[in-house]
Design brief:
Chain lengths: 408, 501
């Protein structure tokens, strides 16, 4: 540790992710928010909440809502300061980042952080809507988000996996692994196993991306309660600490970035976060990677430094191919082993874009406190560190948080 | 997109405008006013990549497009790399895909050239959006020629044609039944992202390349068409903006232009005006571009549905570096209602057999007689004749009736392979002759526009035609290009309707 933690997480709550036809954005936020408040072990009064931070991408478009603080105020019965952040898929991790800064600055002791997205109300239009997170020139060139990631994937396979079927298989195995991880996740959108051949047979969306390479369109909300580390034990004997909260940005447009084959925002944010936490990748037991499309999980494994550039697919292939157990499938490398997306990731747990960043925090919190029930992962000596990686757009922003079981 | 957003995008997207730091050479798209590296010291200039070739760097096949692009079905889009200097997003056009997975890596590294195309439209009553961030593979059908403007000659000559460019879409439909189409074997079919304005820009660009003329010298642009994309809003301004015609000033150009309408002679009527302007002291010897562009629609099952083609012809008139002088001109006009389209109607109507003898033949033959009398020439003094070609039968009969031989008309009968180009018809027939004409050849071109009238022009080809020939994309090379692709009738109807919106 190189400094005191930003904050302690003392409570978490979430809705199931999926097609929640009977929920409004407000009702989802209430459910997740109350769930989080009530989950605090030693109790927490709503009056203890001094501020709220919310992340959501496009409620103004999907549900014609504005002034979300006003809705949150009404639904949760709070009159505290509320800040809304928008950073596409990284909206709620950006809210978390701001909440961390607020607590670390000493302004607040206890804050509620939320993330939500209601995507299914825009059936038939959501593919267009999502392109708000891309450059208009990309929209005007006919791109969709799957198209942008397919462009990355095509170039990746061209440069690093040319003529090697294993590369293609590895990028399908990621989906297979994440579906496998979601089977026992009660909140996940997809709790079914799939096979590599299912991925290859699924509908073409944007060559080479097929339907089962993609995260779904989802509804959902997540909330977490943060407090100042010094007062955490007042609320729980088992807080989880945020020991790094880092953000990095890059061009919104894929075409103008220095490289199409790496997400530089990930690279910068992970590097800064590890330094801030005073740990190395070998200390990370579980990681939540932003697998909006399977290629992105592969890029994360490289850009974070687990595997070297262009070698990620080999490490992934060897890890998954050699796995013979029945529970969670780790990625392994030289002297390290990490479980990635233990609840199914965006692929299988679901991807209500503005909720995803906090869903990662939820998952790690539960796993680190051994509260994941049947989906609990077993790590010898317990999970000491978890890393959450959430990006926006095709890589225009990356938020990385490192969670620790204990602090010095 | 709102109108102001559209205007701001046009200035960048039509020309693929990039900003460049003069100190370190870094380039930026979209263009921005400072360099990331040089910061406050930046000295930025602008460069256009409209005439440049790029490489397909990476991309995909969009199978589930956004609603705006659903009219295209599946299509390729990706990132285009210009010389390693700058990358831009770009859709690939004129490319048909089937349902099976495409190995995109096969396209990586292939050379592409920008095309000016529609991107999408806002419903049936909103704006039509165009962009040059649409590319085709360089070796795919089109012969890509580099644009290298030369300094115009100081020497002033008799005015005439300085350069020309023809554009015929890549796709064709065959007239399988020989009894329909009056001799037309196959017709050009526009891709769904094309319309008369995109044809006009493409033909105009080819004319500039052929003439090797900097667009800033062109001070007037006429676009003749009966199928302009807008009922009110000129295609001429689109052409001027895209081809940068006239001296640039702020984000516009010191040049004028307008759309003209007279059925199929909407363009040729302006040839004489162009020459008159070129000769005017007020115009100061600058150049005029005249384009005939049409994507005419025909009702399903109508006889016209077996003759309509699509494409454009662009001519640059001037009095320097002339390849064919305009020597004689006569127009003949009468109010003959043989073919018309009321405002708001989708398809034109016609008078059936009435469009023949009292309309087409009467006006064409009268104009021929008039111009021969005016010039004192006889059919034997003319090397070639090019007539408006709604089909093969009509121009052949008119030429023979007027005393010309099959040898004089035959090289111009390109209609049989591309259909009736309407405003572009007789100018394309003329281009087919210019493609092969030797210096000294005398060419008679006669247009016909329903409603009705004919313009007759006699040109004399100069020595200059030879040195410009290597920069042309000959009509026959477009017609016979082995990479042209055929579509079936339902695809033809679907595309035609889509691009006719």
């Amino acid at each position: 540790m190189t400094g005191k933690p930003y904050a302690a997480i003392i409570g978490v709550g979430r809705t199931r992710f999926g097609e929640l036809w009977y929920e409004n954005p407000e009702s989802m936020v209430v459910k997740a928010g109350l769930d989080a408040l009530e989950s605090v072990d030693k109790g927490l009064h709503r009056a203890d909440i001094q501020a709220c931070y919310f992340g959501s991408f496009m409620y103004q478009v999907t549900n014609k809502l504005g002034l979300v603080p006003g809705y949150i105020s009404r639904e949760l019965g709070l009159n505290v300061p509320m800040t809304q952040t928008e950073a596409a898929c990284a909206s709620s991790s950006s809210a978390l980042h701001n909440a961390c800064l607020a607590i670390k600055s000493g302004v607040y002791d206890v804050v509620l952080v939320g993330g939500f997205e209601k995507m299914t109300d825009r059936y038939g239009k959501i593919v267009d809507d999502l392109m708000f997170a891309a450059d208009p020139h990309e929209f005007d060139s006919g791109f969709t988000f799957s198209g942008l990631y397919a462009t990355i994937m095509a170039r990746y396979m061209y440069e690093f996996g040319k003529n090697d079927e294993k590369c293609r298989v590895a990028l399908a195995q990621i989906a297979v692994k994440n579906h496998h991880h979601a089977v026992k996740n009660l909140y996940a959108q997809f709790r079914n196993e799939i096979r590599v051949e299912d991925v290859f047979k699924s509908t073409l969306i944007a060559d080479p991306i097929r339907l089962l390479h993609c995260s779904p369109v989802s509804d959902g909300a997540v909330a977490v309660v943060l407090c100042k580390p010094e007062v955490a034990k007042k609320y729980t004997d088992d807080p989880i600490y945020i020991v790094a909260s880092q953000q990095a940005t890059d061009h919104v447009s894929l075409f103008s970035r220095i490289s199409t084959l790496e997400i530089r925002a990930t690279k910068f944010a992970v590097s800064k976060a590890l330094k801030e936490a005073g740990i190395t990748l070998k200390d990370i037991h579980i990681a939540e990677a932003h697998d909006c499309f399977t290629i992105e999980e592969c890029l994360f494994m490289e850009d974070s430094g687990f595997y070297s550039k262009g070698e990620g697919w080999k490490g992934i292939y060897e890890s998954i191919d050699s796995f013979s157990g029945s529970k969670h499938i780790p990625y392994v490398g030289n002297g390290w082993e990490v479980f990635v997306n233990v609840g199914g990731g965006l692929k299988a747990d679901g991807h209500p874009v503005g909720a995803t960043g906090l869903r990662q925090i939820y998952e790690c919190f539960k796993q680190m406190r051994s509260e994941a029930d049947e989906n609990q992962i077993s790590v010898e000596g317990g999970i000491r560190y978890a890393l959450c990686h959430n990006i926006g757009g095709s890589g225009g922003i990356a938020n990385v948080h490192v969670l620790a079981r204990e602090v010095e | 997109m709102s109108e102001p957003i559209t205007r701001r995008k046009i200035t960048v997207d039509y020309n693929i405008r990039v900003s460049r730091c003069e100190i370190c050479g870094r380039r930026y798209f979209p263009p921005k006013p400072f360099c990331d590296i040089e910061g406050r010291k930046s000295r930025m200039t602008y460069e256009d990549y409209f005439y440049c070739r790029g490489l397909f760097y990476a991309g995909t096949v969009i199978r589930r497009p956004t609603n705006k692009f659903s009219y295209l079905g599946s299509f390729i889009t990706g990132v285009i790399d210009f010389n390693g200097e700058v990358k831009v997003p770009g859709r690939i056009t004129d490319f048909m895909l089937n349902e099976s997975e495409v190995d995109v890596s096969e396209f990586i590294g292939m050379e592409v050239v920008p095309r000016f195309r529609r991107i999408y439209v806002d419903g049936e009553s909103g704006l039509i959006y165009y962009s040059s961030l649409v590319f085709s593979f360089t070796d795919d059908y089109y012969e890509a020629k580099d644009y290298k403007p030369l300094k115009p000659s100081e020497k002033s000559e008799r005015p005439g044609i300085v350069g020309y460019g023809i554009y015929i879409p890549k796709f064709r439909i065959k007239n399988e039944d020989p009894s329909v189409g009056a001799g037309i074997l196959e017709r050009a079919v526009p891709f769904p992202d094309e319309d008369a304005a995109t044809f006009a820009v493409e033909a105009g660009r080819r004319a500039l390349i052929h003439a090797a003329l900097d667009g800033r010298y062109i001070k007037k642009c006429y676009v003749g068409s009966e199928s302009t994309p807008y009922a009110v809003k000129p295609s001429a301004s689109t052409v001027i903006q895209a081809l940068k015609l006239g001296e640039p000033y702020e984000d516009g150009f010191f040049s004028g232009g307008l759309d003209t309408q007279f059925a199929c002679k909407a363009a040729t009527d302006l040839f004489i005006d162009a020459v008159a302007l070129v000769g005017s002291p007020i115009f100061r010897g600058e150049y005029v571009m005249v384009i005939g562009a049409d994507n005419s629609q025909a009702a399903p099952g109508d006889p016209l549905d077996y003759t309509v083609g699509a494409g454009a012809a662009a001519y640059i008139f001037g009095k320097r570096d002339v390849i064919a002088t305009l020597d004689y001109y006569v127009s003949y006009t009468s109010d003959t209602p043989d073919f018309y389209r009321r405002e708001g109607e989708k398809y034109p109507r016609h008078g059936g057999r009435f469009t023949g003898e009292p309309a087409y033949f009467k006006h064409i033959v009268s104009a021929i007689k008039g111009v021969l009398k005016e010039s004192g020439l006889t059919p034997g003094d003319i090397s070639y004749i090019a007539l408006h070609s709604p089909n093969v039968k009509f121009p052949v009969k008119a030429a023979l009736d007027a005393g010309f031989s099959m040898d004089q008309i035959k090289p111009s009968l390109v209609v049989q392979y591309m259909g009736n180009l309407y405003s572009g018809s007789s100018p394309t027939a003329l281009a087919a002759l210019l493609d092969i004409a030797e210096p000294g050849c005398r060419i008679l071109m006669v247009s016909y526009g329903s409603g009705a009238g004919s313009d007759a022009y006699i040109f004399t080809v100069t020595e200059k035609i030879e040195e410009k020939r290597e920069r042309s994309v000959p009509v026959l090379s477009q017609i016979k290009n082995p990479k042209r692709q055929y579509v079936d009738y339902s695809t033809y109807r679907k595309w035609k309707e889509s691009s006719g919106l």
